[in-house]
Amino acid sequence: MTSPSIVLSSLTKRFGSFTALDRLDLKLEGGKCVGFLGPNGAGKTTALKLLTDMIFPTEGECFLNGISVQRERKRALEAAGVLIESPEIYPSLTPTQALEMVADLRGMSPAERKDRIPAVLEEVRMADWTHEKFGKFSKGMKQRINIAAALVHDPEIVILDEPATGLDPRGMAEVRSIVRDLKKHDRLIFMSSHILAEVTDVCDEVALINHGKLLFYDTLDNVTAKFSGGHSSVDATFARPVPERTVTDRLAGDADLLGCEALDTRRYRLQFKGGPTSQARLLRKLSDETLELVSFTESKSALEEIYMSQIEKGD
């Protein structure tokens, strides 16, 4: 069995004199989650619509598992589950009824539906609302059913267009948790987003575009290492206020420590070189009962800083 794959080849889309995508080349392979980042108007949704044959390219071609979307649409899209721009489901339908309709459109047999629909509702944490009307659901619950509709035929490739946008914090957390679990089934997930914390939380790799051009594509670790000059940063949080002098004294003399910044009286950001070994050593130096260290996590600002610098460079 070959690994799932997505290929965008010289993908170009022009709307009159406006170029939304400009010879975009991108190749994704294997079971993982790839975040598709870019500011509003960068071309993310346009690329996903071209990838799913919702619109036609001016030039170039898209492939799913090596099959051309433009030349063999039905065969190519058989392997994909797609959620773009959150479609509305009839409010009088139950989740089971809605998924029955999608399964019918997918050509699934009654036996396949009987097993698969309960399984996919369990996968999106909606098994307890199987027979409730869709119109009664919160926006987050509706989005989980939309994700279930994309998954009902158990696709190898899942394409999601900003699935957590517009949800409250709880709804966003639920969607992120679902996406993380999707990776356990060796699926290739291609997810556009403008929420950097979401990408950092659930994605293995990231592709950044701006003005229809690809700026970079790599693993999160490689992107951080490349654009941060090989430096890393972690945030140390303490249970109570700790004087900055106390923290700097504990870390004094460490050759790999590049800086210590107080974020507030309980949180400090440490910038260092040397990778995991250096990080472990810094952790040991701060792991003291008198300091009451409660967390020591990679800084969430790293991707944000890289994102902003690359976008500004391209503008």
Summarize the structure.
The protein is built from eleven helices and 14 strands. The chain is an alpha/beta fold.
Question: Can you walk through the features of this model?
Answer:
It is a single chain. 36% of the residues lie in helices and 29% in strands. The protein has 315 residues and is an alpha/beta fold. It has two domains: 5-220, P-loop containing nucleotide triphosphate hydrolases (Rossmann fold), CATH 3.40.50; 228-314, 2-Layer Sandwich (Alpha-Beta Plaits). Helix 3 (95-105) crosses helix 4 and helix 5 (139-151) runs parallel beside helix 6. The model has no long low-confidence stretch (mean pLDDT 90).
CA distance, first residue to last residue: 43 Å
* Mean pLDDT over the residues: 90
How many beta-strand elements? 14
Order of helices and strands: EEEHEEHEHHHEHEHEEHEHEEHEH
User: Nearest-angstrom radius of gyration?
Assistant: 23 Å
For this structure, the CATH topology of the largest domain is: Rossmann fold
Give the overall form: globular
Structural class: alpha/beta
Q: Helical content, roughly?
A: 25-40%
Q: Tell me the β content.
A: 25-35%
What is the topological layout?
Blueprint: E1 5-15, E2 18-29, E3 32-37, H1 44-51, E4 59-64, E5 67-68, H2 73-77, E6 80-83, H3 95-105, H4 110-123, H5 139-151, E7 157-161, H6 169-182, E8 188-193, H7 196-202, E9 205-210, E10 213-219, H8 220-227, E11 232-238, H9 244-251, E12 257-262, E13 267-272, H10 276-286, E14 293-298, H11 301-314
Parallel strand pairs: 3-8, 3-9, 6-7, 7-8
Antiparallel strand pairs: 1-2, 1-4, 4-5, 9-10, 11-13, 11-14, 12-13
Helix pairs in contact: 3-4, 4-5, 5-6
